[in-house]
Design a protein that fits this description.
Among the domains are: 2-301, Beta-galactosidase, Chain A, domain 5 (Distorted Sandwich), CATH 2.70.98; 625-732, Sandwich (Immunoglobulin-like), CATH 2.60.40.1180. The two termini are 32 Å apart. Helix 4 (325-337) runs parallel beside helix 5, helix 7 runs parallel beside helix 8 (485-503) and helix 9 (538-548) packs parallel to helix 10. Strands 1, 6, 7, 8, 9, 11, 12, 14, 15, 19 and 20 form an eleven-stranded antiparallel beta sheet that branches. It has an eight-stranded parallel barrel with strand order 21-22-23-26-27-28-29-30, surrounded by six helices. Strands 5, 10, 13, 16, 17 and 18 form a six-stranded antiparallel beta sheet that branches. Helix content is 19%, strand content 30%. The longest helix has 23 residues, at 598-620. By secondary structure, it is of the alpha+beta class. The structure holds (2R,3S,4R,5S)-2-(hydroxymethyl)piperidine-3,4,5-triol. (2R,3S,4R,5S)-2-(hydroxymethyl)piperidine-3,4,5-triol binds at residues 316, 346-347, 359, 394, 464, 466, 512, 514-515, 531, 534. It comes from Prevotella lacticifex.
Length: 733
Amino acid sequence: MKKATLFITALLSMAVTAGAKNVAIETPGNTLVVDVTNGQRPMFVYYGAKLSASDMANLKPAAGFSRNEIYLPYGPAPAAEAAFACRHSDGNMTTELLATGYDVTSDGNSTVTTIHTKDPQYALTVDIHYKAYNDVDMIETWTDITNGEKGTVTLTDFYSATLPIRRGDVWMSSLYGSWANEGQVDEEPLTAGEKVIKNTDGTRNSHTSHAEVMFSLNGKAQENSGQVIGAALCYGGNYELKVVTDDSEYHRFIAGINADNSFYHLKKGETFTTPPLALTFSDEGLSGASRNFHKWGREYRLAHGNDLRRILLNSWEGVYFNINEENMNQMMGDIAAMGGELFVMDDGWFGGKYQRNTDNAALGDWVVDKRKLPNGIENLINDAKSHGIKFGIWVEPEATNTASELYEKHPEWVIKAPRREISCGRGGTQLVLDMSNPKVQDYAFSIIDNLLSKYPEIAYIKWDANMPIQSAGSQYLSMDDQSYLYIDYHRGLEKTLKRIRKKYPDVTIQLCASGGGRANWGLLPYFDEFWVSDNTDALQRIYMQWGTSYFFPAMAMACHISATPNHTVFRTTSLKFRIDVAMAGRLGMEIQPKNMTDEEKALCKKAIAEYKEIRPVVQLGNIYRLVSPFDHKGLASMMYVSDSKDKAVWYWWKTANFYNQHLPRVRMAGLDPTRMYKVRELDRIDLNPLDCEGKVYTGKFLMETGLDVPYTNEVEWGKKTDWSSRVLYLEAQ
Ligand code: DGJ
């Protein structure tokens, strides 16, 4: 993440009070045009590829489409789904927002255009911001809603933004799923009516659906061609994305906080800021839009987005809660011997009066369980040091169990509606702590602060969150403000995370939430990566990692090699297949190495060494998805290409195995057609090298024709499996 975005150095500011038509908001390759005329409703004009000045001068808001206000309020404006609605201090339910001017500020990385609007009858103002980046095609848009009225204004709808999309043959790609099946791709044409994607979990927001979508403007989505608009709501809480297709020429995409049961009393003088919606346009298909999200994410939103990630072993699937000094040391030794760089001790290390032997006790009692680890964390850190690796640790700061000393001491800290019983989750005893309460925020901060101040050698924290909000109410918020819970929970969480990052900017923190429950750009500024899913089955991971890669870069996606039969789906896959799938993200291991054979360990050691070679291309390169597993062609294929196109890594995974199968040859993408690339197979297990091994091909050939690879891995008879995959490293000569 670039520091300059946090600490604005040179501020160039321009205030424009006179009305102006066609205000252009521009990135290197995108233009968004808004009509801002003082005393009039600000109207959407254009969003897409960069416009020339002469073409822009010819544009005006589409005649007769008065619903295309950039932030349509409920009331005097045309009857349509509104982006904003409130009850004014005198009870009036309608709002009119007319432009009063705009200004432009710049910080070296981006330019923020703010369009000021005001209700002509009320002292309610809405500032609509557009932040356009100078080096990546991304525009973030959000609003500041300020109550200048004499009394309280109640906000009932407060989305972040509206984007009209011209009708035609527009398709929407979105992600859906569930625990252990996150990131599934759904594609559908936009038809008449309303399509709503929303989340109501309260704490996590990406298991069942995602706050990001892509719109393909020229028919069914293509990976590497066609015009695509991508949108990501940068928010960790309940969201709502909707596309309204009524009788006008435009679909209207509206995105923001899900206001269900969350009306907000805006006190006199108070400002409510909505979370940013990040927008990108690409004419290079879905993969092009993904590359924009990845670049923007790495530069501006992900913690340490320019630093390579360590290869780690996480203890969870290896030993679960059965942590002790001996097995921790043994696992550290094993991962170090395989070339790994970090060991993470997962759940089960803590507890005093209550022991954490399963998931029903001790959350909140963050003291080392001396029965399991008599020599404490310092001893583990020393062990890690002696193996030459770093040490990391698991916590779940937002939760407790009824069986915990914390709950006994602070029953008033848990989420619970007034006059209702508590409602428990995981293990039948888990409860969510009320992050809207400043005392709980201080407590959550203190968990991390205690660990990191006492053990500064801790290099990695895995921050988990395993429960939704149940019995939705707060013991901290007043009866009048109960509807703040969902929003104030996330404000409290963010405040805590900001405090942690201020004091501990360097520590690596993983965002985990029962697997991939928190893959969102709202929380990632405080985290280095997220756990894609609790399901580590390589076959299902191909699908999950595919969908997740639409919006998130490989360096942020934790992908671990685990045991077979897989602990979630009980599928048995080959180790080679598991390695090749995990190598497409931030590689790690989630296994008890003690149970592996020497041959398996040797294969992993080789894979780790080879991953180190390709790590910069995978983690900092550009994604080109080639054949989607969701197209059910029997295979999936994708690649990463370095910025200078001198190196690339190509993945080929077979998703189904039949005799006499006919698979398509995969054409590569993103290479320099004029350069020569030498091919080397990684993670090789075949007895004989591939035909292409060591040969040199033009980028043109690889992209127009592609390489044929055998459909099976040719190994000794007794070692054959029904899985096959290939990873090729291409280096320009
Ligand atoms: C859920 C996470 O997704 C797992 O990786 C593991 O950390 C468990 N929680 C521990 O309880």
